[in-house]
Structures are given as C-alpha cells and as structure tokens.
Amino acid sequence: MRHYQLFIDGEFTDAASGQTFESRNPSDGNVIATVAKGGREDVARAITAARRAFDEGPWPSMTPAERSAILLRLAAILQERQGELSELEAEDAGHTLRLANLFTVPLAVNHLQFLAEEAGRLEYTESIAQRAPFPAPAWNFVQREPYGVCAGIIPWNFPLIMAVWKAAPALATGNTMVLKPSPYTPATATEFVAAAGEAGVPKGVLNVVHGTGPIAGEALVTDARVDKVAFTGSTAVGKRIMQLASETLKKVTLELGGKGPTILLDDADLDIAVPGALWATYLHGGQMCESGTRCFVPAGLYDEVVARLVESSEGLTVGSAMDFASDIGPLVDHRQVDTVKRYVQIGQDEGAKLLTGGDVPTGVPQGGYYFAPTIFGGVENSMRIAQEEIFGPVLSVIRYESVEEAIRLANDTIYGLAGSVWSRDIPRALEVAKRIKNGTVWINDHHLLSAAAPHGGYKQSGLGRELGRWGLEEYLQVKHIHVDQTPTKDQKFWYQVIGL
Ligand code: NAD
C-alpha cells in the first residue's frame, strides 16, 4: 500500500488536517494507496511557496536555456522510469500496459522535451515599429514575461500527460505552479513533481496538492495570489472555474469536453477507416476528450460499415489494465460505469438501435469497473447519446445522404475539440476538414496530437491552446517598453498639451 503526500516547497508533507482519502485500482477495485487530503490551509501554503519562488527565487530570471536544460533532465528521468511509470498509470488510472508503454509515457516524455526546447526558441524581446502620433526618437519593444503563480487543475484520464501539459509550458516560460491532480489518480503526478526536484527544479517552483475540486480546486481558483488558472476537465466545471476566476480577473485557459465526429466519405478506404473509427472511440475505453464518438457514414455504405464495425468491436478483449492481452481496460470508477449504463438506457429510450455491447462484459476480473465496447446504429444527431459526452466506449453511427449534411451534423453540437475525415482523396478531405469547427482535424487518423501543434477547443470545448508555441504563449504576458530619446524638453512638444 502506497501513501501519497502533498509536495510543498520542495518537501513531501501530509495535510495540515491529517486527513487522507483512498485511491483504488480500477482493474479490481482494491485500495492501493492512501492520499493526503489537502484543504484550504495546504493550498494557501503551496501558493505561498510558489509565490516566494516566483517573487524572490531564481527561476523566473534564469535564461530560457537554463530552464530548458533542467526540464530536459526531467524528461530523461521520466524516460528512464518508463516501465515503473507505465505500471503506476495502469494500476492507478487503468491505462492498459500496452497503452501506457506505447502511448502515455513516451508521449509525456516527447511533449516535455519539445516544450522545453521550444521555450528556448521563442523571442522574449521583440523590437517594434513606433506608430505613435508623435514622432519621438524612441526605441520600442515588446517584452514577454511570465504571469507568475499558475494553478494547474487536471483530470483523471491521463494523469502524467496532463501534469506535463500544465507544468512544462508554465515552468519553461518562467512561471511557478501549484498542481492539483484528480483525486482518482494521484500516483504519476506525484512521481512527476518528485522527479522535477531531482532534475533540479528549485523548491517552491512546482508543488502538488491532492484534494477535492470543491475544496482544494476552488481554493486555488479564488486565491488572489494566483495569476493564472490552467484547467483541463469537464465543460461544467470549466464554466464554474471561469466564474470563480472572474472575481480576481485571472488569466484562464480551459481544455474541456468533446463529442468528436469521424466522417467517412464515400471513397474512404474501409480497411483503414473502419478500424480507425473504433480507434477514435475505444482508445482508453473512450475516456478521452478528443475521442471520435459520432461516426458519420454515407447511406450507400451504411450497412457494410456497420457490419464491419460490429464484427471488429466484438473481437476486442476487455480485461485488467495490468494484462498485456487486454485491448480495453477498465473505466476509472464504478460511478463512470453507472454513467455509461445510464446513457445506454437513454439511447434505447430515444430509439437508437443497440448493435453490440451495452453492459458489463463477462469474464472480467471481479470488483473492476468494466464496460463492453458498445455501438449504437440508427442514431439521430439530435439524440442525447450523440450530443452529450459519455466518456466511455460508446460509438454512435449516424447515416448521412450528402457531404453537406455530414458537415452540418458534425458541427451541430456545443463542442468543437477534435474530429477526423476519412477519404482516399486528400484535397476533397481537406475541403471538409476546413469546414469542421474543431480545434484539430485529422485526415485518415485520429488521436495523433503533436507536441508542436496547438491543441484546444472551439465553442464549449475550451478557451486558449495547449502545446506548440501557441501553448507556451498562453503562459506569457506581453509588456510594451518605450525608451524615449528626445534630447531636450523643448523638442517634447506634446508636453504643451497640459501647458508645460
Ligand atoms: P472534472 O471536470 O470532473 O475534474 C477535473 C479536475 O477539476 C479534477 O482535478 C477535479 O478535482 C477538479 N474540480 C472539480 N470541481 C472543481 C471545482 N469546483 N473547482 C476547481 N476544481 C474542480 O473532469 P474529470 O471527470 O476529471 O475528467 C474528464 C473530463 O475532462 C472530460 O469532460 C474530458 O473531455 C475532459 N478532458 C479534456 C481534455 C482536453 O484537452 N480538452 C483532456 C482530458 C480530459
């Protein structure tokens, strides 16, 4: 049994209240760790440490290259511990060992490396032309500066990657951070901040407080000493955070939910597109913001595509995350299983046809939180199963008559995070991609987020961008500095405006 503590000012510590909560392995429901339950006092202490590290410590005034070198050491430590971190992510967050080893940890390392290096390539001082009405001899430039103390609030689906997505851009650009992981998944985020200390990140620069959203999360969002909140999670909580942050007008970036379309055009290569639609839906059991859970199929291909989707889906193995044979692991919690069950009922009540799955599968380990890969046919885009984020392995197949109709339906949602278009004709697919109101559109693939490309949502999928230089810029303020070189007071004729 492990015990995860808070990490404040470079030291592991229990909560001031002494309270703890339990963390369970979703593969069998067993308690695997106790976790210090941070409250308002702990959050205040972490903010004080981050504030001091920013206001008095060396971190913000180090050169980008110096900070980058430390973060690259951190990436190397994570890479060395790939096996151990993969096992932790499997045990704590239900990533199958294949997902954790092939995707989660390599991606976390790759994204950290890229963001650390890219921060060194940004222009922090940029000369600009003077366009004032007074032609003063002056030098004008823009200085990019860190915001200060950032709060990083992250969900349970990809705890290590989410910790990297928050801490890497914040730290690489000279900010300090208090990170709050989801109470469901404390493990790898704690390992991450400890490794940051080993890599040479100074004390107070990166802190972690475990705790609930309403207590620890809201304490972070409302504290006037926090300059920016970077949140990833549900759209409902994102709205609450934006409201709370408005009291102190904090900078806010929000990475929220999605209901991604996968649009199969009539010339799609079905050998790639059919498994592609399942890849879009079932990776990590559908517990991904950018999952493609609405599959749009031309009427002429509908029966063939549905038959192939169902056949492939029924060939997938659901089982323990710790088993290399499992294609799909558990959901994070029994409440998530209940949510998915509820949506299956809603889909049936709305008149969609349950083609496969729809319940807890047989032959899975006792006590775990499993759900069978599920496909609904005959779905109307207006149904709740096509409009609301389910966050489980549920695919809605929607028939369309024309590409115009597919585009209209794909955009008919409050969300706009990510989607995909499948076709052999790339120029044609590009025309469709341009008209999809999503922050990311893949052609003939899904889920392949790049460290160099911006990731974020249109509409109610979020505000701002993560990754790439766009993600780094979200952590930098721009300051205009004007250096006046007018030699004498008489030449400063604008002083006459107030008679000087
Ligand atoms: P959630 O919104 O319930 O919780 C996310 C985090 O916010 C957790 O740390 C939680 O403790 C905290 N929180 C909850 N209430 C809070 C409050 N009132 N104040 C401050 N913090 C609060 O989300 P979840 O269930 O953990 O994660 C799933 C959601 O995350 C899905 O909607 C998914 O689409 C989204 N997500 C988005 C992205 C993206 O990049 N857009 C990536 C991953 C997950």
Distance between the termini: 75 Å
CATH topology of the largest domain: Aldehyde Dehydrogenase, Chain A, domain 1
CATH superfamily of the largest domain: Aldehyde Dehydrogenase, Chain A, domain 1
Relative strand content: 15-25%
Number of strands: 21
CATH architecture label of the largest domain: 3-Layer(aba) Sandwich
| Strand order in the sheet with the most strands | 15-16-17-14-13-18-19
Bound molecules: nicotinamide-adenine-dinucleotide
CATH class of the largest domain: Alpha Beta
Largest sheet: 7 strands, mixed
How many domains? The number is: 2
Structural class: alpha/beta
Shape: globular
Uncertain regions spanning at least 5 consecutive residues = none
Specify Rg, calculated over alpha carbons: 25 Å
On the 0 to 100 scale, the average pLDDT is 97
Residues in helix, %: 25-40%
Explained architecture:
This protein has 500 residues and is of the alpha/beta class. The chain has 2 domains: 2-256 and 457-480, Aldehyde Dehydrogenase, Chain A, domain 1, CATH 3.40.605.10; 261-443, Aldehyde Dehydrogenase, Chain A, domain 2 (3-Layer(aba) Sandwich). Helix content is 38%, strand content 21%. The protein is built from 15 helices and 21 strands. It has helices spanning 40-55, 64-80, 82-93, 97-121, 159-172, 187-199, 213-222, 235-246, 270-282, 302-314, 334-350, 384-387, 403-411, 426-435, 468-473, and strands at residues 2-4, 6-8, 11-13, 20-24, 31-36, 125-128, 138-146, 149-153, 176-180, 206-208, 228-232, 251-255, 260-264, 292-298, 353-356, 374-377, 394-400, 418-422, 440-443, 462-463, 476-484. The strands form 5 sheets. Strands 15-16-17-14-13-18-19 form a 7-stranded mixed sheet, sandwiched between helices. Strand 8, helix 5 and strand 9 form a beta-alpha-beta unit. Helix 4 (97-121) packs parallel to helix 5 and helix 9 crosses helix 10. Bound molecules: nicotinamide-adenine-dinucleotide (NAD). The site of nicotinamide-adenine-dinucleotide has 30 residues, from helix 7 and helix 8.
